Amino acid sequence: MEKMIDNLNKINEKYKNLKALSLKELDKDCTAIVVVDVINGFIREGNLFSDRIGEIIKPIEVLLKKGGDYKKLFIKDVHTKESLEFETYPSHCLVDTRESEIVDELKGYIDDNSHIICKNSTNAFVNEEFSKWLKVNEKVKNYMIVGDCTDICVMQLALTLKAYHNEKNIKNRIIVPRNCVETYNLDVTYHDGELLNIMSFYMMDLNGIEIVEKII
């Protein structure tokens, strides 16, 4: 137990001292900003709402403003009442409700370079519309993934996307800026946001995902 706590402290320190990445390093014709689940149902209201997640809105706005000419992919939860995901999570983000809408602060960044995907599971990669987007945008090799939750939808997409390109021997960069991702606290399930963030960064880092402090 003592060694485990020591290792956890070392991992925590590592992700407190990350470097920033310059957007200029990424060719805009081969790069996409992927915004995951920055919607009302996780930030403003509903069964899975969390105050913590609202803190990433401003940093994501800053990134979207800097990367205005880059491809942008907005992914959001949109469920029907029959969604099997509700066997694991409480009902949330139902179709045609405010919960399933992108937060107002980000709507102004949806433009002709943007695409919106509605997903019915935690992993956007398995969504049919996402597969179509990948085929149409084969030139994209750099992905900046932001949003929530760090340990669920963000991590699942990042790891699966990396594995997909590894399988095909396609070199890519998947980048997760620490200041643009967040997860929730829930005492009843021992879901500690700070701990889960740290462990998510560690798991992604181990699998070739670039964890940076922010993108400037």
Uncertain residue segments: none
The CATH topology name reads Rossmann fold
Question: Which word captures the global form?
Answer: globular
What is the CATH class name?
Answer: Alpha Beta
Q: Based on the structure given, which CATH architecture is correct?
A: 3-Layer(aba) Sandwich
Number of separate structural domains = 1
Question: Overall mean pLDDT score?
Answer: 95
How many β strands by DSSP? 7
Structural class category: alpha/beta
Separation of the first and last Cα atoms? 39 Å
Secondary structure tally, helices: 7
Account of the 3D structure:
There is one protein chain. By secondary structure, this protein is of the alpha/beta class. The chain has a single domain (29-212), classed as Rossmann fold, CATH 3.40.50. 33% of the residues lie in helices and 17% in strands. The chain has seven helices and seven strands, in the order H-E-H-H-E-H-E-H-E-H-E-E-H-E. The chain has helices spanning 2-14, 40-43, 57-66, 104-107, 128-136, 150-167, 193-206, and strands at residues 31-36, 71-77, 114-119, 142-148, 173-177, 181-182, 210-212. Strands 1, 2, 3, 4, 5, 6 and 7 form a seven-stranded parallel sheet that branches. Helix 6 links the parallel strand 4 and strand 5 (173-177). Helix 6 runs parallel beside helix 7 (193-206). It is globular. The N and C termini lie far apart (39 Å).
